[in-house]
From TrEMBL, chain A:
Its cofactor is [4Fe-4S] cluster; [2Fe-2S] cluster; [3Fe-4S] cluster. The lineage of its organism: Bacteria, Deltaproteobacteria, Bradymonadales, Bradymonadaceae, Bradymonas. SUPFAM superfamilies: 2Fe-2S ferredoxin-like, alpha-helical ferredoxin. This is succinate dehydrogenase. It comes from the Bacteria.
From TrEMBL, chain B:
It is a peripheral membrane protein. It is an enzyme of class 1 (oxidoreductase). It comes from Bradymonas sediminis. Residues 516-649 form the Fumarate reductase/succinate dehydrogenase flavoprotein-like C-terminal domain. It catalyses: a quinone + succinate = fumarate + a quinol. This is succinate dehydrogenase. The keyword Transport applies. Keywords: Cell membrane, Electron transport, FAD, Flavoprotein, Membrane, Oxidoreductase, Transport. Belongs to the FAD-dependent oxidoreductase 2 family. FRD/SDH subfamily. Its EC number is 1.3.5.1. Residues 37-443 form the FAD-dependent oxidoreductase 2 FAD-binding domain. GO terms for molecular function: electron transfer activity; flavin adenine dinucleotide binding; succinate dehydrogenase (quinone) activity. One of its GO terms (biological process) is anaerobic respiration.
Length: 254, 650
């Protein structure tokens, strides 16, 4: 196949960027999208040009590193897939493909298609864990957890932290990301002691980092490679109200 | 001459770790905050080490090659984590897990290390559950387990097919809690490029900021290396794109010994390659072998037919035929070798005839589609996304791929390398798996090292050596000198591009091109089956390729910005040396053991034939310079408690 790529090129966070046309020829439908870019880069390098910078790591959809917006969709046209698992058989010969980075104020561009998503780490830092210390703990079977609760916690915990939800949201909200982590702990007995403080701190940090508010558009759920449900956001809101009522909105640093 | 002292404690096997812990020195609470510890890596071993050390009160500096610590490649581990809880009451015990692990490793690991691993396994599950890791549960609310290769009991805990992800996120959470509390400073998108030794001790590192290209110096009282394995030397492997050997290899160049580099595990159940441009191979969890049956057509003329059209009597379930006791659950090395053999004999299936079938039709018939979906749903989805074939309806095609390395930097029982103050944990060390690792044991080892061993042994080092640990600053001469070396290294790489541009256009090769050729040499000559001729070929071909690399290779761009090709170039330069050492070690070990299968040393039934008399040792290599012959040091393995036997899974 031959594809007409329009790729976002930007030399650094402070410089202006623009779309650049690159023709990708000889592409096989079996290749993954990133392998197609690898091949394009090899040819650019042979022609003495700078390769297109993009980041990826596991290339099996679990590490959350790859972060491309393809034809306006975070992770591209296939649903439930990170871009590393998108294959060229999803495109047709002669297609024009626009490739941009994940765009959000909280995700500054590093170069070309690479963005810095450290803001998501700082949300986790504000309470996305149980405060337990390494050492002896009660036997793992001492607390029974019903299978539906364990499964619900697991479903929420499958978030890979890619930030597609933020990139897809017109408000650049990180609500799906934050609420998924909150749900994981809210569904487990181990998560109860810090439930209120965790909710308030993580939601506050999300706002402070420059992410927008959620206005129930649902784009986040549509692009999430792990199919994380928007119901988590409703849960987060209920928990936030509950937490404010119970604590008076005051949190002490953990 | 470096003398290798394993420092294994005295006493009966089950008392050794307790004895050692009782004798470990402690650092007083006031003094802990005066010590800085560098932890490189944020996978299971790195995140758990950094979090646990910071919790204890040390000042920790943690370095991560990705843009976030949560992306470390431990996240991709699918199947599970072993622990001898014996919840299913099927006869498991510490001894049982220890014995399976040491036998699975073909008696090439230290008894005491492997036993300690089994002892700690149970604590890891308790730790993870307290953190809120959502393991699979039964309807009664108790934890679920499943079976894995090389074991006859059900001791593998799992979170669907994403166990590594959930355990890593648990450790990452613990780590971020310490970042929040100010005890741990996080340095993301940093690559460690060298180790700084002061007065014979590891006292710091030089890193490169991968976003800006800036070099940075960091000083500490101890360095803990948790940087994973060197499996990406093969170019095509299941390891992540950024997994590499550089941090460990630069320590090796500073004097740390590299042990058993030829022990490389080839995972049996991976999706076969489909095009020549493939960048990596994707693993399908070994847990699939619980319910999947592996077969190839009995008749060569059937290999091109649709699998469902081949009647059961024309299928060769070769693992069940050859190993009736373990069947499809033989250890990884045995499963890989057999698949390789079947394909080589012309029974390979799929468009490129490079695969065997992994078939779920029997399990779906017996247990129902819903049960199979609940257990493996995400793996089936992943398979379908990559191959466009539905594994509920037709068998998966699988073929082995490089997956894990048992070799790594040599460490003693305290996980300290031969360089004082340099500790190595997780896949980066050579420690517990011998010549082959059992499934679901990597997560166990990474977390045993990080949560329980490193915190105790590093504390002991700081307590007992406190008068020898003179204050160091990152602007003193040793740091400047090493930074200068790193600078020179990068400049050398940038110059290679200029040299390449002077070559005629048709002779110019990119760094990726060289890398992929190295991978082919290693896969062909230092892969599943090795011969003396093949290894000798590799020992000629790799230095030749290295010469070509240094004669000029395309590495575009500059070093003061994000530059993936430059990152890869540095790693390839190291892999070109790692690969040679792997071949040398494999040639030198003139026996078969576990994953190291020399075609000229096999039993009449085609199993690895060990030579315990001459080779029951750890081969630890000392670096002597690029292209120079390394020096071999041997640590003899003593087996006090287990009897060395020919492995049999029949």
């Amino acid at each position: 196949m031959t594809l007409n790529l329009k790729v976002w090129r930007q030399s650094g966070a402070d410089s202006a960027g623009s779309l650049e046309a690159v023709v990708a020829h000889g592409i096989s439908p079996e290749m993954s999208f990133l392998e197609m870019l690898d091949l394009v880069n090899e040819r650019l390098v042979h022609d003495g040009k700078l390769p297109i910078e993009f980041d990826s790591d596991c290339r099996e959809g679990i590490c959350g590193t790859c972060s491309l917006t393809i034809n306006g969709k975070a992770h591209g046209p296939d649903l439930g897939t990170a871009v590393c698992q998108l294959h060229m058989r999803s495109f047709s010969d002669g297609d024009t493909i626009v490739i941009e980075p994940f765009r959000a104020r909280a995700f500054p561009v590093v170069k070309d298609l690479v963005v810095d998503r450290a803001a998501l780490d700082r949300i986790i830092q504000a309470g996305g864990y149980n405060s337990v210390t390494t050492g002896p703990h009660a036997d793992a079977n001492a607390t029974l957890i019903s299978k539906p609760d364990a499964d619900a916690a697991f479903e929420a915990a499958t978030c890979i932290g890619c930030g597609a939800c933020v990139a897809a949201c017109p408000n650049s909200s990180a609500s799906l990301f934050t609420s998924a982590k909150l749900t994981q702990f809210a569904k487990l007995p181990q998560g109860q002691p810090e439930r209120d403080i965790r909710t308030i701190r993580m939601v506050t940090t999300m706002d402070d980092e420059g992410f927008g508010n959620c206005s129930n558009i649902g784009e986040c759920e549509a692009v999430c490679p792990k199919g994380i449900s928007i119901n988590n956001i409703s849960r987060m809101r209920r928990d936030y109200v509950r937490a404010v009522l119970r604590t008076g909105g005051r949190v002490t640093e953990s | 001459m470096t003398k290798l002292e394993s420092k294994v404690p005295e006493g009966p096997l089950h008392e050794k770790w307790d004895n050692r812990k009782h004798h470990y020195g402690l650092v007083s609470p006031n003094n802990k905050k005066k010590h800085t510890i560098i932890v490189v890596g944020t996978g299971l071993a790195g995140a758990s080490s950094a979090a646990s050390l910071a919790e204890m009160g040390y000042k920790v500096k943690n370095f991560c090659i990705s843009d976030s610590p949560r992306r470390a490649h431990s996240i991709a581990a699918q199947g599970g984590i072993n622990a001898n809880k014996n919840y299913p009451n099927d006869g498991d015990s510490t001894w049982g897990l220890f014995y399976d692990t040491i036998k699975g490793g073909d008696y090439r690991s230290r008894e005491a290390n492997t036993y300690r691993l089994a002892q700690l396994s149970s604590n890891i599950i308790d730790q993870a559950v307290a953190q809120g890791v959502p393991f699979a549960r039964e309807y009664g609310g108790e934890l679920a387990t499943r079976s894995f290769g090389g074991a006859l009991v059900s001791r593998t805990f799992y979170a669907r097919g994403q166990t590594g992800q959930q355990l890593l996120l648990g450790a990452y959470g613990a780590l971020m809690r310490q970042v929040d509390g100010g005890n741990c400073e996080m340095f993301a998108h940093r690559e460690m490029l060298d180790l700084v030794m002061v007065d014979g001790r590891a006292r710091g590192i030089i890193t490169r900021n991968l976003f800006t290209g800036a070099l940075e110096r960091h000083a500490a009282d101890a360095v803990v290396l948790c940087t994973g394995g060197y499996g990406r030397a093969y170019f095509l492997s299941t390891n992540a794109v950024n997994s590499n050997a550089t941090a460990a290899w630069r320590c090796h160049k500073r004097g740390a010994l590299m042990a058993n580099p030829s022990y490389v595990q080839i995972h049996p159940t991976c999706i076969p390659a489909s095009t020549e441009y493939q960048s990596k191979r994707t693993l399908m969890s070994e847990s699939l072998r619980n319910d999947g049956r592996i077969w190839v057509p009995k008749n060569k003329e059937d290999v091109g037919k649709p699998p469902n059209s081949i009647p059961p009597e024309d299928r060769d379930y070769y693992l069940e035929r050859k190993y009736p006791a373990f069947g499809n659950l033989v250890p990884r090395d045995v499963a890989s070798r057999n698949a390789h053999y079947m394909v080589k004999q012309g029974y390979g299936v799929g468009p490129l005839r490079n695969a065997v079938y992994l078939d779920f039709s029997t399990a779906i018939k017996e247990k129902g589609k819903a049960a199979i979906e609940a257990k493996y749903g995400n793996l089936f989805d992943m398979y379908q996304k990559i191959t466009d074939e539905n594994p509920y309806e037709q068998p998966m095609r699988i073929f082995p791929a490089v997956h894990y390395v048992m070799g790594g930097l040599w460490v003693d029982y305290d996980l300290m390398s031969n360089l004082p103050g340099l500790f190595v944990a997780g896949e980066a060390n050579f420690s517990d798996h011998g010549a082959n690792r059992l499934g679901a044991s990597a997560l166990m080892q990474g977390l045993a090292d990080g949560y329980f061993i490193v915190p105790a042994s590093v504390s002991n080092y700081l307590a007992t050596e406190r008068f020898n640990l003179t204050p160091v600053k990152d602007d003193q001469a040793e740091f400047k000198a090493v930074e200068k070396d790193v600078r020179a290294n990068i400049d050398e790489l940038l110059k290679l591009n200029e040299l390449a541009l002077k070559k005629p256009a048709e002779e110019r090769r990119t760094v990726i091109d060289i890398y992929s050729e190295l991978g082919k040499i290693l896969w062909d000559d230092v892969g599943i089956e090795r011969t003396a001729e093949g290894l000798e070929h590799a020992l000629e071909a790799i230095p030749r390729l290295r010469e070509e690399f240094y004669s000029g290779v395309l590495i575009p761009g500059s070093d003061d910005t994000f530059n993936k090709y430059l990152e890869i170039a540095g790693r390839v330069a190291d892999f070109l040396e790692v690969g040679e050492l792997m071949a040398r070690d494999a040639l030198d070990r003139d026996e078969s053991c576990g994953c190291h299968f020399r075609a000229d040393h096999q039993t009449p039934k085609g199993e690895a034939l060990r030579n315990d008399e001459d080779f029951a040792y750890v081969a630890a290599w000392e670096y002597k310079g690029r292209g120079e012959k390394p020096v071999l040091h041997k640590e003899e393995l003593e087996f006090e408690f287990v009897e060395l036997k020919q492995r049999s899974y029949e």
